[in-house]
Amino acid sequence: MKKEKIETLVHEGKMLPLMEAFYTIQGEGHHTGTSAYFVRIGGCDVGCHWCDVKESWNAEKHPPTVTEKIVDDVVKYSDTVVVTGGEPLTWDMTLLTQMLKQKDVNIHIETSGAYPFTGIWDWVCLSPKKNKLPTKEAYQKAHELKVIVFNKHDLQFAEEQATQVNNDCLLYLQPEWSMREKMIPIIVDYVMQNPKWKISLQTHKYLRIP
């Protein structure tokens, strides 16, 4: 297929730069411990220095995959999918989510919220980044706010973000993995003093699963 044709199909959401897809246990946030099929879409320009999937940033490194095939693979394994990245909202998620809904799949997204929303989502995990803040729409759509804590200053950032989400949004603080030994005691103390927050841990890494 010609490059120009592929680019058109990606722009229309009929193909997506798929980095990886796998069936596993959700390790973070509200749905920790539940099974789900993960679809990791390549492409992100938010640029967090501590990102643990920097290989996802360059979308050109990940093959454009027919959206229908992605959906077919999801339903082989699970009735719940987590669309993550990279930053999945870099791309038009309309067709992907429409096709998943036709298969009665519960659709979750993990996003920085930096780009306009496309698609139909049953659960929105908003993980805002200082480099490129979420849109107003993202704050209103969020079911959970998950702030990554690399240092103490991120606690203030978390509070600023919490003032902007809807009243029903669940609030999570998650230690950045490389700083977990230093930050977990600080986060534990903070949550005990500010019980509106909960702690999210990357339990999949403790379990040594994808």
Automatic annotation (TrEMBL):
GO term, biological process aspect, one: tRNA queuosine(34) biosynthetic process
Domain of life: Bacteria
Reaction it catalyzes: 6-carboxy-5,6,7,8-tetrahydropterin + H(+) = 7-carboxy-7-carbaguanine + NH4(+)
Residues binding substrate, per UniProt: 25-27, 40, 84, 210
SUPFAM superfamilies: Radical SAM enzymes
Pfam families referenced in this protein's UniProt entry, alphabetically: Radical_SAM
Documented EC number(s): 4.3.99.3
Domain named Radical SAM core: residues: 31-210
Cofactor(s) demanded: [4Fe-4S] cluster; S-adenosyl-L-methionine; Mg(2+)
Cofactor, free-text remark: Binds 1 [4Fe-4S] cluster. The cluster is coordinated with 3 cysteines and an exchangeable S-adenosyl-L-methionine.
Pathway it works in: Purine metabolism; 7-cyano-7-deazaguanine biosynthesis
Keywords from the UniProt entry: 4Fe-4S, Iron, Iron-sulfur, Lyase, Magnesium, Metal-binding, Queuosine biosynthesis, S-adenosyl-L-methionine
Top-level EC class: lyase
MF-aspect GO terms: 4 iron, 4 sulfur cluster binding; carbon-nitrogen lyase activity; magnesium ion binding; S-adenosyl-L-methionine binding
Positions contributing to [4Fe-4S] cluster binding: 44, 48, 51
Binding positions (S-adenosyl-L-methionine): 50-52, 86, 127-129
UniProt subunit comment: Homodimer.
Family under the similarity heading: Belongs to the radical SAM superfamily. 7-carboxy-7-deazaguanine synthase family.
PANTHER family: 7-CARBOXY-7-DEAZAGUANINE SYNTHASE
Function: Catalyzes the complex heterocyclic radical-mediated conversion of 6-carboxy-5,6,7,8-tetrahydropterin (CPH4) to 7-carboxy-7-deazaguanine (CDG), a step common to the biosynthetic pathways of all 7-deazapurine-containing compounds.
Name of this chain's protein: 7-carboxy-7-deazaguanine synthase
